[in-house]
Amino acid sequence: MADLRNLKRRIGQRIILGFEGTRVPTEIARLDEEWGIGGYILFSRNLEDLDQVMALNEELWSMGQGIPPFIGIDQEGGLVHRLPLPFTVFPDMGHMGKTSSVSVAYEVGAVMGRELTASGFNLNFAPVLDLNSNPDNPIIGRRAISADPQRVTSLARAIVRGLHDNAIIACGKHFPGHGHTSEDSHKTLPSCDFELSRMRNRELMPYQKLINSGPHLDMVMTAHVNYPKIDPENPATLSRIILQDLLRLEMGFKGLIVTDDLEMKAISERTSIEDATQRGLEAGVDLFMVCHSLDKQVAVLETLLEAAEAGDYPKHLWERNYTRVREIKARHFRVIRAIDRAHARELVGNREHQRISRRLRDGK
User: pLDDT of 108-146, one tens digit each?
Assistant: First the structure.
């Protein structure tokens, strides 16, 4: 029984969950008690005001069965801003790409980092490293910094440094590139017909630069996109060619690979959650994100357990994935026993932060 419990706790560290409501649901607490869940992603549906955000995050910090969880959010700026007032609101990153300097980008990352840390978060699913190369893209567009890979690289590096300097893990997305597609992966499976040789010189450049030199990316999110000239059979999220051969071996990435939400229609309308989990495991995924359904979250955990017990996936690889999670957490997490609410109320949305937001908006 002890061996099974330990195995479940190792597997639990490999899932990031979303849930409904402004408190931790009872069924999620029970799941954590059994599996030791690795992380959570919060959305607008979970967040009412600053005091409630702090109370919820403090509750989440106590979970994980001895290993504090990732507590993440999509805090990009522009339309992808989940947090309620008084959190500082920034323009979209496309605005930054047109008007801003590296120093402004750093300040933006630092403000985001300070406010997220003060309110109990430790992970930001940002920055977007996609290139804004298709003006008709329905899902990326101005979420991307620029169509110029050099500009994306320099400004994204500054944002990542600002986040890291304030104890927030940055997650670059959506690998290997969602910017040129013409469809939304929330609704269907997009396709990109670029050759790998072309992508090395453009779409992959921001990732490669942030892998090669500091501040190093610790997490990369996959794109639910087909690249038939790279892998004719699998979308990036489920592709060993893209995640293992390209990202790990060729590009040298040593951090965590996290899927985009496996409940998005790009994946869910084409395969079962069990099959997606098995294929993702074989492709080299470290963290499986499931943002809505408890049944699907349980299915991912049980599929991973079945794979471990069957012995089809080498034991040393299970340990390597688990060790990556523990090492990234150890590198970035601060010990939080209680959130300093008075400090957070003074910090979040303060005049200096609003000034930096205006500086970005005004292009100064």
Answer: 999 999 999 999 999 999 999 999 998 788 889 899 999
The domain spans of the chain are 2-362
Question: Is 260 designated active site?
Answer: yes
Residue 205: both structure tokens together: 């450049």
Reported as half-sphere exposure (CB side, CA atoms, 13 A), residue 23 has a value of 3
Q: Are strands 75-77 and 80-81 parallel, antiparallel or unpaired?
A: antiparallel
- Whether the CB-CB separation of 36 and 67 falls below 8 Å is answered with yes
Whether 295 is catalytic: no
Residue 256 predicted with pLDDT over 90:
yes
pLDDT band at 318 (very low <50, low <70, confident <90, very high): confident
pTM given for the model: 0.96
Which among 260, 261, 286, 353 is annotated as catalytic?
Answer: 260
List the catalytic residue out of 148, 165, 184, 186: 186
High-pLDDT (> 70) share of the chain, %: 98
The dotted CATH code for 2-362 is: 3.20.20.300
Decide: helix, strand or coil at residue 191.
strand
d(CA 191, CA 197): 17
- What region, left, alpha or beta, does residue 351 occupy, with left being phi > 0 and alpha being psi -120 to 50 degrees? alpha
